[in-house]
Amino acid sequence: MSSPLLEVIALSAEDATAARAGGADRLEVAADMAADGLTPSRETVGRVREAVDLPLRVMLRARGGFTAGGSAALDALTAQAAMLRAEGAEEFVFGFLDDAGRPDFRAVVTVAEAVEGCRWTFHRAIDSAADRPESRRRLAELPGLDTYLTAGSAEGVDAGRSVLVDEAARTRRGEPGYESRLLVGGGLRLDHVPGLLEAGIDAFHIGRAARPEGWAGPVAPEAVAEWRAVLDK
User: Fold this and answer.
1) Is the pTM here over 0.85, yes or no?
2) Distance CA 183, CA 105 (A)
3) pLDDT per residue as tens digits for the range 22-76
4) Nearest 5 degrees, angle CA 24-CA 30-CA 33?
5) What pLDDT band is residue 201 in, cutting at 50, 70 and 90?
6) Virtual CA dihedral for 60, 62, 64, 70, nearest 10 degrees?
7) N- or C-end of the chain: fewer Cβ atoms within 10 A?
8) Can you state the angle between helices 42-51 and 71-86, rounded to 10 degrees?
9) Residue 121 belongs to what H/E stretch?
10) Residue 233 confidence (pLDDT)
11) Who's near 202: CB < 8 A, 6+ residues apart?
């Protein structure tokens, strides 16, 4: 049985190097965590790619919240996606909701087409969806989607644990709409991990937990290593 996946948010090449040293399996490359993660610059992605040989999932998000914005904003985002692909990005993170809390399929499909052939994560917008089961059922039809970054609830893992456990069971049963992997993040603590592992969840995402000084400070290898040790226990 393979070890659980540990994904760490990297804002720089230095973060990437520290995360790898601590035992990260994959990085989410983003910028501006005050807005919960926006698209990083081409230069940042290039430097991270040169620094480590870990898989990278690059954020495609131009603003806080879960709306994609109008046509001009969407055009700009797809242009950024093309630029980042040219820089070597091969995996991505994105997801948008409309004003009613439904997946914004126009925006999601447009970006998915811009990264055609790439695997991607639908991020925590799923936790704010008005009808989560229906959203998952419809999103499952999109090519490339293989992961949901989710806490099970917009309020975090404490509130969403039962949803995560239920969806993990649906995935094991092969239910339609639940084929994609659950990557748990958002208020995730080390004490959550044993129970989630027992429920069959095998992928975990950390950001601030990898930074003892908070978002103003760098990723610390020893903080990542602590998570690695718990996951591998």
Assistant:
1) yes
2) 22
3) 999 999 999 999 999 999 999 999 999 999 999 999 999 999 999 998 899 999 9
4) 105
5) very high
6) -120
7) N
8) 30
9) strand 119-122
10) 86
11) 2, 4, 5, 181
CB neighbour list of residue 34: distance below 8 Å, 6 or more residues apart? 215
- Round to whole Å and give the CA distance between 9 and 29: 6
Question: How confident is residue 2, by pLDDT bands cut at 50, 70 and 90?
Answer: confident
CA dist., res. 27 & res. 58, Å (int): 8
Residue 198: what are its φ and ψ, rounded to 5°? -60, -30
Is the Cβ–Cβ distance between 96 and 68 less than 8 Å?
A: yes
> Is beta strand 181-184 parallel, antiparallel or unpaired with respect to 91-94?
unpaired
Which backbone phi and psi does 4 adopt, to 5 degrees? -60, 150
Measured CA to CA, the distance from residue 7 to residue 26 in angstroms comes to: 5
| Six-digit token string for 65 | 């919240």
